[in-house]
Amino acid sequence: MRLPLLILLLLPLLTTAQNPVLFDPDSILIGNTPPTKILLVGTFHFDYPGLDNHKTSREDQVDVLSPRRAEEVAELNDYLARFRPTKIIVERDPGSALNDSYRSYLRGQFELTRDEIHQIAFRLGERFGIDSLIAGDADDLARDLYYGPDSVILQPMLDSLYADTPASADTSLDARYYQLYAHDDKLRSAHSLLEDFQYMNSTQRIRRGHGHYLEFTSDTDPDALAIGWYSRNLRIYRNIQRAATSAEDRILVLFGAGHLGILRQQVESSPRFELVEFGSL
């Protein structure tokens, strides 16, 4: 038996209504407005400042100024250049002298150090005619409260939030994370910088790296994480939002790899942005 013509015409609409999972929300949220492309580049700190909990042993540290590694820096930058950035955001405080140094470099009056911002952002910025870099780092809410006008009252409470891990806590997974970091150091010393960056910026490594922050050992850990690490990264994301002034922008964000667990979620979630996968270049 033939179906009436009206039913045949309405069938696609009825099918969509019964299967809402088939509807793409971006048809409304994005429509015909092209999102700004963002490339998140997680890095290790080339000059090994020793500010993180994990410290890389001297024998596993990479010297990016050595002849071999200098060639690898050039190879890494050639790879990143495929993105063709129009803006570069780096892990520096807005009040820093970042662009004083960068413009001195453009004039040939600044010698690049081991810093990854110098080796990657300065070189790429010059390559693509970018006249200034964007300092995208931020302090967190915990720091604002600790040194704010009510610090006498708030400091004892904040100190309790950031107290040492209780002796009764299960730290076996924490120990395995530090084992992973030591293993990563060995991989880095044995592989090229581009290979190391491909590993650091893989979705699995980013996801599991963020997992270490979520291994709570006390009831106050979630609060400390929220007003500290999460607060800082959400403010960094706000700086990325401010930098995106045009759909034609192609923004390269260069930060320590640990930041990518949160930043990636923000960029992926926003209809404003299109996340360009590091491995897709």
From the N-terminal CA to the C-terminal CA, the straight-line distance is 54 Å
Mean pLDDT comes to 92
Largest sheet: 5 strands, parallel
How many whole angstroms does the radius of gyration measure?
A: 23 Å
Shape: globular
Percentage of residues in helical conformation: 40-55%
Order of helices and strands: HHEHEHHEHHHHHHEHE
Number of strands: 5
Q: Which spans have pLDDT < 50 for at least 5 consecutive residues? A: none
Number of domains: 1
Q: Kindly report the spatial arrangement of strands forming the biggest sheet.
A: 3-2-4-1-5
The proportion of strand residues reads 5-15%
Structural class: alpha/beta
How many helices? The count is 12
Describe this structure in words.
The chain has twelve helices and five strands. It is α/β, with parallel strands linked by helices. The protein has one domain (about 35-280). It has a five-stranded parallel sheet with strand order 3-2-4-1-5, sandwiched between helices. Helix 3 (about 65-80) crosses helix 5 (about 115-125) and helix 11 (about 220-245) crosses helix 12. The protein is globular and about 50 Å long. The mean pLDDT is about 90.
Topology:
Blueprint (H helix, E strand, L loop, with lengths): L4 H14 L7 H4 L6 E8 L23 H14 L6 E4 L7 H9 L9 H12 L6 E2 L5 H6 L4 H11 L10 H19 L2 H8 L2 H9 L9 H23 L6 E7 L3 H10 L3 E3 L6
Parallel strand pairs: 1-4, 1-5, 2-3, 2-4
Helix pairs in contact: 3-5, 11-12
What is the compact description of this entry?
By secondary structure, this protein is α/β, with parallel strands linked by helices. It has helices at residues 5-18, 26-29, 67-80, 98-106, 116-127, 141-146, 151-161, 172-190, 193-200, 203-211, 221-243, 260-269; strands at 36-43, 87-90, 134-135, 250-256, 273-275. It has one domain (33-280).
